[in-house]
Amino acid sequence: MFWVIYLCASELAGDARQLSRSAQQALRMRAAAALAAGRDQEDVAALFKVSLKVVDNWWAKWLAGGHEALVAQPSGRQAVGLGTAVPPATRCVGMDTLHGL
User: Which of 50, 3, 2 is nearest to 24 (CA)?
Assistant: First the structure.
């Protein structure tokens, strides 16, 4: 398989964490493609302006699960369904109640 990597300097400037989720995913895919094409991890880290540790993590995920392993995952906490009650035993106890113990 042959990979073509198009790079835009404005896409690579600054902290990659500031990119949108889709741009971060594209960055991971491009880095993995560069590694699959035989580029060295240090070169890829320098090229995409990310740490060597990040490139190593991306490559390990790619080797373990391919393209799907680098797809952006939903972020944040998952919503709890409406009507889900908190059991009484897990509710918080006020400090005034604990003071008497």
Answer: 50
pTM of the model: 0.60
Which long-range contacts (C-beta less than 8 Å, at least 24 apart) are formed by 25-32? Answer: 25/70, 25/71, 25/72, 28/58, 28/70, 29/67, 29/70, 30/5, 31/55, 31/58, 31/59, 32/58, 32/59, 32/62, 32/67, 32/70
Task: Give pLDDT tens digits for 46-95.
Answer: 999 999 999 999 999 999 998 888 888 777 777 666 655 555 555 555 54
Cα 35 to the chain's mean position, in Å? 18
Residues in the chain: 101
Please report, for residues 22, 35, 43, 76, the alpha-carbon distance to residue 73 in angstroms, rounded to integers and kept in the order given: 10, 22, 27, 10
